[in-house]
Amino acid sequence: MRHIESTLLVTVSGRDRPGVSARLLSTLSVFPITLVDLEQVVIGGRLVLAALLSVDERVAPGVRRERVFEEVRGAVEKTCVDIGMEAGFVSGDGIDRLRSGTDERLCVTLLADPLRPGALGAIASCVARAGANIDRIERMASYPVTSLELVVSGGDDATLRNDLAMEAANQGIDIAVQPSGLHRRAKHLVVLDVDSTLIQGEVIELLAEHAGCAEEVRQVTEEAMRGQLDFEESLRRRVALLKGVDASAIEAVRDNLVLTPGARTLIRTLKRLGYECAIVSGGFTQLTDALVERLGLDYSVANTLEIVDGKLTGGLTGPIIDRKGKALALQRFATEAGVPLSQTVAIGDGANDLDMLQTAGLGVAFNAKPVVREQADTSVTVPYLDTILFLLGVTREEVEAADREAEREADGEQ
């Protein structure tokens, strides 16, 4: 941090329309000044543009700074009158510090439906109590949820993370805290759990409906997802209940799988960004293979049901994909994709996803059980899978712009 003297902060605000920034910069161009910082935002049809100015002594050595800034004020005020805007000025005495870029910064992403002023105020208070500062706030999305991104610097990292997690729970909103920087957009492999993450519901429970043992299977599933029962034991117990079910039940379930809202948007956008996408499931290859084809996924691993003479035997073939197996699969996919683990994202909801979430560079608990939310890097409780994009720094506007461009290209090919 360094003290900055002889600066002038100019703010211009008013109804947004084309040419405002061009007029202001044109007005400033005749003076011997440099732009130290510049930021513009449009919200609710209103534009706010702020420019931090300094006298360029290389162009005008020995010039009186006070006189230059006085002339700048007069010129900007006249321009604002001409274009129907309002101008404000703060001298160097009112601008104490300029960030040198050496401070460690955190990116705090909020997800809420709806986002209320009190909740955001509580988050801002957390930041202040940790001795940190909010440098920038940017809207990432207005639907299906409201998402804001705060760039925060200074303060104690551990205190801030803990306080934000507690306040998010109190306010009923989701918060992700990540180091800011290029690496945040460099997570090139995303691995998703399947049941109750990529798709709605649990496949084995859907199969159990055909066997007439749905409630019994559901109870065992709940115990396993809460971490109260070893996953392999629970899986074998549940699969055993399917003994004798006709293999045609698999096809019926496969044809009726329902994707989680936002799943297609998430995968489609990630692929456009050059991400590798994978699924790791404690479910069954007889169903996950269809998802790979349906969504164009790059990698997949799951368990395999044993079928003999067109009937489920109640057993499995091959290695079991359990909690440890999911983490190993993520590592293998990362190696095959040439992606370091620090640039991977894992998304899941159950206790058997925990090793995978903790192995990844970013572990996201998606509508997860409490034990998973407590141990993951961040938690998302809204029912839209594409909100993960906002955690990666992708805005809703960017997603929609890419979709429109794809539609135009498709129309051009027809």
TrEMBL record:
Cofactor(s) in the UniProt record: Mg(2+)
Q: Which family does it belong to?
A: Belongs to the HAD-like hydrolase superfamily. SerB family.
Which CDD domains does the record associate with it?
HAD_PSP
- Which part of the chain is the Phosphoserine phosphatase ACT domain? 108-178
Q: Which organism is it from?
A: Salinactinospora qingdaonensis
Pathway, per Swiss-Prot/TrEMBL? Amino-acid biosynthesis; L-serine biosynthesis; L-serine from 3-phospho-D-glycerate: step 3/3
Q: Kindly give the InterPro entries that the UniProt entry links to this protein.
A: ACT-like_dom_sf (IPR045865), HAD-like_SerB (IPR050582), HAD-like_sf (IPR036412), HAD_sf (IPR023214), PSP (IPR004469), PSP_ACT (IPR049148)
Listed Gene3D superfamilies? 3.30.70.260, HAD superfamily/HAD-like (3.40.50.1000)
Keyword Nucleotide-binding appears in the UniProt entry:
no
Record's catalysed reaction(s): O-phospho-L-serine + H2O = L-serine + phosphate; O-phospho-D-serine + H2O = D-serine + phosphate
Q: What top-level branch of life does the organism fall under?
A: Bacteria
Give one Pfam hit by family name: HAD
Q: What is its EC number?
A: 3.1.3.3
Which keywords describe this protein according to UniProt?
Amino-acid biosynthesis, Hydrolase, Magnesium, Metal-binding, Serine biosynthesis
Parts forming coiled coils: none
Protein name (database record): phosphoserine phosphatase
Main enzyme class:
hydrolase
